Amino acid sequence: MAVKALYFSERDGQDMALKNPEKMLFANKADADARDKMLELSEEILMFLKSKVDGLSEEHAEQCALAIAEERDLFLRALKKPSLLNQEAEAESE
Amino acid sequence: MAVKALYFSERDGQDMALKNPEKMLFANKADADARDKMLELSEEILMFLKSKVDGLSEEHAEQCALAIAEERDLFLRALKKPSLLNQEAEAESE
Question: Which Gene3D superfamilies match (chains A, B) (predicted)?
Answer without folding.
Answer: PSPTO_1197 like
